[in-house]
Amino acid sequence: MSETLSGSVDDGVSSGTTSFRFRPVGPGRFFVAGFLSLWLCGWLAGEVFALWALWRILAAFLASGEGPLPVALFLLVWLGLWSVGGIVALREVLRALWSEDRLTVSADGELERLVQRGPFRRRRALSGREIRCFQVRAAGVGAGPLVAELPGRSIEITRLGSLRQRREAADQLNRRLGLRPLPEDPAPAPGPHQIPAAAVLPAGWQELTPSFGSPLLVPDLALRRQQRLVMGLVNLVLWGLLALLLQNGRAGPGFWALGVPLALVALAGGWGLLWLALGRLEWRLEPRVLVLQRRFGNRLRTLGEARALELVERVDSDGDRSYRLQGTRPPDPPLRVEDHASDPTSLRHLGAWLAARSRVPFEDRVPSEEQRRQQRAEMERLRQQLAGSGRFGRWAARQLEGPDA
After folding, report:
1. Among positive and negative, which fits the CA dihedral 336, 339, 345, 346?
2. Cα–Cα distance between 357 and 213 in angstroms, integer?
3. HEC assignment per residue over 106-117
4. Fewest Cβ atoms closer than 10 Å to its Cβ: which of 20, 87, 270, 286?
């Protein structure tokens, strides 16, 4: 029988399974849970009051055919947003106080991930044959989660447990499945012709081969159909609310205050649905050149040509990092290919695939972890020199302190 230990591994003698269990740690989670619990008390009071007011208005409208319908429409929209906020807050409370992530590896190398948040559980099966390795993501946005690296994408396993437990679990999982950890960064020395990742087309993209002309790289058509369905439902609600508002008449109270914003949102939703149905941005794959096109119905417009690709890291004022894959065309501004808020892995695979497919140079300009350590060491040395140079130097040293200091 296999036994599970928090943040560690234990091999079952009879079943041959290996289980990892991760739970919340640290005293800071109690402060977060306490604050959110107080907020949820106010949220519950607002939720009950809004439901009561909405019920009274709708009951009066059904009984007499009259009532402040614009107020009811406002309450309906507000109640939906308020409910989403409460659900998110409750999930964070459960994550801080009553949560567990468990990863089980069977004897044949198959994996099962169990996510528990309070009484709610969710299971997901993972194929060990598709996983390249396990690793703990480096510092930045989403620092420290244990992830499974697959061709073209990453799957987050857990953020629970301590950073040391997640690192030990990554090492033990790699040894258990015979996987080789990836380098800390696939681009230790970026170069203009470097292809740092496997040329695998990531999820969310699809290659089309027309009967004539060059191949096209387009957003995944199946995903676009799902987006059209969701946007269609959103439009149904928006235009239905607008129709009810118009039916009540322009003389009703608050018609213009509520009708004009609702009409603008409905028009924006209608345009979004039309774009998902008829339009798209696509890349035409020519030899040694990538052509960005905008297609809308039967109309096609060329937006620009890129003869090289680069992956760049962007850092905002809070020190949070994001990543962008873009096509360069000096002296004109670069053409955006794709963005990612936290992980450049899928962008590396997409850049490598485009570079191999169209034979264009691909430069990975994201710093490696070794380069980041050197930058932090140099910044710390500079800060210490400033701190020892006098009052103004100490003030300047404090301004240099940040997430990476």
Report:
1. negative
2. 15
3. CCCCCEEEEEEE
4. 87
The amino acid that residue 47 corresponds to is E
The amino acid at residue 302 is T
CA dihedral (207, 210, 215, 220) in degrees, to 10, reads -20
Q: Which helix (H) or strand (E) holds 394?
A: helix 391-400
pTM of the model: 0.57
pLDDT tens digits in sequence order for the chain, 405 residues long: 333 444 545 555 456 788 899 999 888 888 889 999 999 999 999 999 988 888 887 777 666 766 676 677 778 778 888 888 899 999 999 988 889 999 998 888 888 889 988 888 888 888 777 788 888 876 544 457 888 887 766 788 888 888 889 989 989 988 888 887 665 444 444 444 444 455 677 778 888 887 677 899 999 888 899 999 989 988 888 888 788 777 766 655 556 766 788 888 899 999 999 999 999 999 999 999 999 999 999 899 999 999 999 999 888 766 678 899 999 998 899 999 999 887 888 888 899 889 988 999 999 888 877 777 777 788 778 878 777 777 777 777 676 664 444
Instruction: Note whether 369 and 185 are within 8 A (CB).
Output: yes
Domain parsing of the chain, residue ranges: 205-364, 369-400
CA end-to-end distance (rounded Å), the chain: 47
State whether the Cα torsion 155-161-166-168 is positive or negative.
Answer: negative
